[in-house]
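Re: your question from the hallway

Yes, I did run it. Sequences:
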Amino acid sequence: MANFTPYSNYGYAALIKETTAGTVPGIPSFYFRIVSESLSTNFANQEINEISGNRERRQRSIQGQVEVSGDLVVFVEEKSIGHFLRSLFDAPNTQTVVASTSYRHIYEVSNTPKTYTLDLQRADAPWAHRFVGVYFTGIEIKKEDNGIQATISCTPRKVFQNARVTTAANSGTTLIVDQTTGLHADDTILVLDKADGFTTVKELAITTVDSETQLTVATIDVQLDVDDIVVIKSAAVTDSSYIQCDPFQFMNGTTFYTGADIDNTSAFTIEDFTISIKNEVEARFGSGPDEINRFPYDVITKGYTAEGSVTKYYDSEAYLDKLRKNAKFPLRVVMNAQSAISANSAVAASSTWGASNGFTVTAETAGKAGNDYNVTLVLNTIDTLAASISGKNVTVSLANATASKNTGTLIAAAVDALTGVSSAAVGTGATQFIAAEDNANLGAKSSGTNVVGVDASQKPYLQIDFSHGILGQFSPNNAEDNIIPQEIPFTVFKDNDCDNAIKKNWSTKVYLFNSISSY
Amino acid sequence: MEFVAKKEIITNADGSITEVVTMVEVEEKKKTPISNK
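Structure:
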């Protein structure tokens, strides 16, 4: 008879945002469903091979460093994916779409990825293993039958699997152990009998974590021996602990787009795909007096890269042509959920330019597609104000000598005459624009007033934009009795060609529309 | 200064269309002298 059922489905995974990397802010409380996990704490040992008068090589052994890594495999749905993206990119720019109801979160590559504390209960163990300072360093998305599945790479700094009592106690509130990192004052610990590693000798609520080796706990009223095992008591998880929605679907759910640039795309059909976005990280190990010092004392974030592949049978030279010319392959993937968050009306995307008294540009047609209209301010080569639109790209060419020709009112008049967008002065419209401004999409400008374009009864979505993909090597080879496949790899670059005035200056943007108000 | 919007439609080499609106300066109407009314 097992001490507890070893059946995996009793287990759980939960996370909580850390404010300071590596500091547990509380008990993880965001529960998310997993398909599998492979987090492994490698308590390495070091062989001491010495010459000592015999031919046995393995004479002695000491502790080695502890490397921790592994993956979480999850089905992608609209709520939990936001946390993994937050860790990989940074906290998103969140925009309210319908007050208190729906929000759009924009994730971009930053220099400050975020960490989480992660609890894993393995099977029905009365305890959980806690991973601290976890970077979700990679998200690899693919289709699993008709579901969208992600493998989340994890790099924790520290782990609290268990600790040992180092001073016997049978009274008082002080418990001396060999590790407290990973514990929090809100935790309850179980002290297990060292003889079997299962029997709970005492359950103790933590009052304070005093040091790396000392806890103040509820009153100890039983004998706790040296080497008894300290673990974190697992949580009582019920169905209501989970707020997740159904996973995104591939068929009847996911659409792939490409085109001349990321804002001017049309849908195309693929049969399979992979997307991988990742931060390279490097764990650094250092000196220290305690067990915990075997773990990395820091994890340094290095480069960001994105890549993937799309697969479809061979019926065109288009992809081979792009491969041959190293041509830009923008890629947008939109995964739509099945049910709307609210019965909202369609909203037209818009943004304003100028701190005040500038101008606003609005998509003429209400809907999510209006977010693709984008505006760039450049200096004209002559002293004339002009505006142009090509596809959904609006360029305002400012008169290059006379600032009074570039008022908000005049720019609005020029832009308003273009097809697809409308424009109006803000306030007096007297602000004079004299400097170029980088490309910005309607509804997503970094300053001013933004209105996000949404469809009527907008369904939650995850939209991944790669502005400048480049195709990798593939070949549509013959094989007897075969429908020739094209598995087309791509790598993602920043769209920052110097000669392109409407360059995006980013490689990856992820838009998440859901009912979560903040990540 | 007064301006009017002048619109042109250009067909690009790749077949795409670009609309261009130029703000063209126009002369303000001269006020009629009161003595001529």
